[in-house]
Structures are given as structure tokens and as C-alpha cells.
Automatic annotation (TrEMBL):
<keyword id="KW-1133">Transmembrane helix</keyword>
<dbReference type="InterPro" id="IPR002123">
    <property type="entry name" value="Plipid/glycerol_acylTrfase"/>
</dbReference>
<comment type="pathway">
    <text>Lipid metabolism.</text>
</comment>
<feature type="transmembrane region" description="Helical">
    <location>
        <begin position="12"/>
        <end position="31"/>
    </location>
</feature>
<keyword id="KW-0472">Membrane</keyword>
<dbReference type="Pfam" id="PF01553">
    <property type="entry name" value="Acyltransferase"/>
</dbReference>
<feature type="domain" description="Phospholipid/glycerol acyltransferase">
    <location>
        <begin position="72"/>
        <end position="186"/>
    </location>
</feature>
<keyword id="KW-0012">Acyltransferase</keyword>
<keyword id="KW-0812">Transmembrane</keyword>
<dbReference type="GO" id="GO:0006654">
    <property type="term" value="P:phosphatidic acid biosynthetic process"/>
</dbReference>
<protein>
    <submittedName>
        <fullName>1-acyl-sn-glycerol-3-phosphate acyltransferase</fullName>
    </submittedName>
</protein>
<keyword id="KW-0808">Transferase</keyword>
<dbReference type="GO" id="GO:0003841">
    <property type="term" value="F:1-acylglycerol-3-phosphate O-acyltransferase activity"/>
</dbReference>
Length: 269
């Protein structure tokens, strides 16, 4: 049954994307930029409904009161394609720094450009990166929220953390709060797999880290805060969903936690 529901969800998920782009594209490009954001946010909400109805997977968000006003860096754990879009409805005007090749995709790239996402050539240095930072500061000064994944790429639940120093540089240069977010959607929507598992999970928005710390101290603090909360949430999520088929990384981390073995966050301290 899980396999059937997974295949059905994957088919309907992409069909939903195509149908909504056909229906909403004229409206999207005629509306002012910020008002047009209702289109991707509605798409995200419709995917949540499909995930619930077809797969039987639901979620709740804790800590919305920790979201500050104005511009800030939103720093979630990244485990699944789910978290690439899922939280858009709860952010007023988010944007990404993303690889420029995405802007070359017909129609999809036009959607990205409409929302003033910041494209970057990953191999660039010098003046190009200075221009990227200037664009990012301009969007932040307009009260927008930069979504950036501190580990850079998707990591399976329970995997050892691999935080990149880039978020510390952004924290230093932008001088805005950083909002850490932990969650384990990868247990229900695994990366690089078609299986979708039913159950319920939490998204925890942690208290914002105020600007002004030394970048190295900030990064150490961010890793400690996020990994401590992530470990607790992993245990809670698995206990609440005993039917889950767990990835090896989660099995290993749960065994370490049960044995009292320190994780990478603790060993950094």
C-alpha cells in the first residue's frame, strides 16, 4: 500500500505543478511581484494537502512566535525536497541565493526572476561575489527573508552534521538575526527515493540568534543549538512513528544517543 500511495503521490505532485503553472502563469506575471507570491505559496499548501490525503503524512509547526519582524536569515535543516518549498506560506517575502543555471529553465526560471531571487555562479570569485552580496543586502534591507541551508545540501536524518562556513559569513556581513529550524521530513520523504511514508512530524523554529557575535563563535553556537534540538526531535519523531522504515544514518544516530555517545556538535565544544 505504501508503494502504491508513493507512486500515486509522485504522479499527482508533478501533475499539480503543471496544472497550476498553466492556470496561474498569466495571473502571476500580471500581478506585482509581492502579490504574485500567493501562487507558489498556494502550490505549497496544495502539496501539503496531497501529502496528507494520499500518503497520510502530516506536520505541525512549533515556534512561529520566534520569527522576528523584518529581514532575517531563515536557516532550516535540509533533508528532502519537501523542505525546499514547505515553509513558504509562513514567511512573508522569502528569497534564495541559488545557482544561476536554474534561471535558465524555461518558465520556471521566469518565476524565479519575478521574485528577485539572487543567482550566483558557484565558481565565481571577486567582483561577481561582491555583486551577489550587494543584491542580497538590498533584498534584506527591503525586509525580506533569506532562506539558506547551513549544511548546503540535503543530508539524511541522523547524518553527522556538515555545516558550511558560508552562513557565518552571511551572518557577519548582513548583520541580521538567524532563525534556526530543525525537522525530519527526510524520514517521510527520503532524498533520492520515490517512497513516501505516512505519519506525523514537527517543524521546530528555534529562537533567533541576534547579530553581533564573532562569526566563528556564531557557527559553533548554531551547530550546537541545531544539532541538540535535532537529536531530541529525531528521538521524538521515531517514537511517535514506530512504523517508519529508517535510513541507516538515523538507526546509527539513535543507537549513539541511546548509548550516550557524543555527536559531532558535542565534540566540537
Amino acid at each position: 500500500m505504501i508503494a502504491f500511495r508513493s507512486v500515486l503521490f509522485n504522479a499527482v505532485f508533478y501533475l499539480n505543478l503543471i496544472v497550476q503553472m498553466i492556470i496561474f502563469t498569466p495571473i502571476y506575471f500580471l500581478l506585482p511581484r509581492k502579490k504574485a507570491y500567493f501562487v507558489p505559496k498556494f502550490w505549497a499548501r496544495s502539496n501539503h494537502w496531497l501529502f496528507k490525503v494520499i500518503v497520510g503524512a502530516t506536520f505541525e509547526i512549533e515556534g512561529l512566535e520566534n520569527i522576528p519582524a523584518g529581514g532575517y536569515i531563515f536557516a532550516p535543516k535540509h533533508q528532502s525536497f519537501w523542505d525546499a518549498y514547505a515553509l513558504l506560506p509562513w514567511l512573508s517575502d522569502p528569497f534564495y541565493i541559488l545557482k544561476r543555471e536554474l534561471t535558465w529553465i524555461p518558465l520556471f526560471g521566469w518565476y524565479i526572476k519575478k521574485q528577485r531571487m539572487v543567482p550566483v555562479n558557484r565558481g565565481a570569485r571577486g567582483k561577481v561575489m561582491t555583486a551577489v552580496m550587494e543584491r542580497t543586502k538590498a533584498e534584506m534591507n527591503a525586509g525580506r527573508q533569506l532562506i539558506i541551508y547551513p549544511e548546503g545540501t540535503r543530508r539524511p536524518p541522523g547524518a553527522p552534521p556538515e555545516y558550511k562556513y558560508g552562513i557565518a559569513r552571511l551572518y557577519r556581513d548582513l548583520q541580521v538575526p538567524v532563525v534556526p529550524v530543525v525537522m525530519h521530513p527526510g524520514l517521510f520523504w527520503p532524498r533520492r527515493k520515490f517512497i513516501r511514508q505516512p505519519g506525523h512530524f514537527k517543524v521546530q523554529i528555534l529562537p533567533a540568534i541576534a547579530p553581533g557575535m564573532d562569526p566563528d563563535a556564531f557557527l559553533a553556537h548554531l551547530v550546537d543549538v541545531m544539532e541538540t534540538a535535532s537529536d531530541k526531535l529525531l528521538v521524538e519523531t521515531v517514537e511517535a512513528n514506530p512504523h517508519l522504515i529508517l535510513p541507516p544514518t538515523a538507526v546509527k544516530r539513535l543507537a549513539e544517543l541511546k548509548a550516550g555517545t557524543p555527536g559531532q556538535a558535542e565534540m566540537r565544544a
